[in-house]
């Protein structure tokens, strides 16, 4: 087994994942889904991310996405599949990924040797991913790998994202954090999604947020100012460590040199995408 530098796998994931995530903030994605008749942004997100699992209902999405209110999901699923089939949504999502990456990175980067190299490295890492107990990863792993390198890279980034994400849910359950407690404690680190975005997109009310914060305070994880206590910080660190252990295989398979090179390439792509306005400026933070 390859020995990686401490935190190398997580750093690589953190560099690769954002390029996948650009699509959910992309006007190209909204345009493609609207062309199918899906005009609500929540419906588009649920359909776009869940389509690989088929025409699933709200229960499956609540379980696999974890941090959305079930009532919000049920407003859109399974009804969205009467408007657009999962197959049509997957095709639209891939078209949106193509348009988004070309717009954010430019055709020169999209067709570059660096992109082809990154795609090869990321796909090699996915060879060690496993399907068991990882429903979102497993569903996406059954999809064909696109031929064009930038889309192959986006596909591989999707696989690595969902592989780690499925593992993270297991860690959250082991830590005893419900969906909103997970969000509140993550936001308290300063690295999570800002509360205004969570309340606008996840279906929770301010009263729900405050109640979750109260439960965290009762456990000694959050103080009266909404900051993590030492116990809260330790729990969040253990959560990420637990997730790292469950998600180690793809990066160990790629090896130290491959992980370092993929991280370098991915950071370059993400830097370009962020500079091009890929994400809202107020997406993260405690306010």
From TrEMBL:
InterPro entries per the UniProt record, alphabetical? HTH_67 (IPR054058)
Superkingdom assignment: Bacteria
- What protein is this chain from? SalK
